[in-house]
Amino acid sequence: GWAERRGIHYGWVVVATTASFAARWFLPRLPALQKSHAWIEVSVIAQQAVLGVAEQGADLALRMGSGPWPDCKCEPIMDDALCPVVNRSYWNSIGERQPSRALAKARLLHDRDPASSWEKWFVAHPLKGIDLRTGPRFTSSDLSLRAASLGLGVALARECVAEEDLDSGLLF
User: Fold this and answer.
1) CA 20 to 30 Å from 66, out of 13, 50, 51, 96?
2) Do the Cβ atoms of 24 and 142 come closer than 8 Å?
3) What is the pLDDT of residue 91?
4) What is the DSSP string of 85-124?
5) Rounded to the nearest 5°, which phi and psi values hold at 82?
6) pTM for this one?
7) CA angle 122–89–153, rounded 5-degree value
8) What sign has the CA pseudo-torsion 76, 77, 81, 84?
């Protein structure tokens, strides 16, 4: 919507996305957006369930994956890759130098999003002797990344969501 205050046009937009994507990708970019577009006020609705944009009371939605996103005009904004991420001390505690052998011994942290699953990753990167039934499950990538940063195991993360932790060295 749009309003006018003291002759200046102000707009607002409501963005719906998941809590993890909001916290780890969208919010870190919000200061630059506010600086370059000071007249736009952004509100964020964070919810795990994939609902229609209007159903969420939003103007637009930021979603990860290929959909389907019913009743929406979709525009891809980035490609992203899944990669294992881990706290360095946990990784060193495994005591293996070869990554595939270390990964086979590691505790896998699971994100309940099927698009970010270890099952999907191991189809593209086959490795024998992995029991995907074990390891804790988390309802968001934010939680699985936090668990990895605390040394609880190896998480599978989208690079864009893990970007800050990777850049800071908290995870590698």
Assistant:
1) 13
2) yes
3) 97
4) E--HHHHHHH--SSHHHHHHHSPEEEES-GGG-HHHHHHH
5) -90, 140
6) 0.76
7) 35
8) negative
Cα–Cα distance list, 25 to 3, 47, 91, 145, 165 (Å): 28, 15, 25, 13, 12
Residues across the chain = 172
Question: Given pLDDT bands bounded at 50, 70 and 90, which one contains residue 125?
Answer: very high
* Omega before residue 76 within 30° of 0, cis: no
Distances 76 to 16, 32, 109 between C-alpha atoms, Å: 16, 21, 28
Is residue 152 pLDDT above 90, yes or no? yes
Whether the CB-CB separation of 162 and 145 falls below 8 Å is answered with: yes
C-alpha–C-alpha distance, residues 30 and 51, integer Å = 23
What are 15's strand-pairing partners?
44, 60
What percentage of the chain carries pLDDT values higher than 90?
A: 53
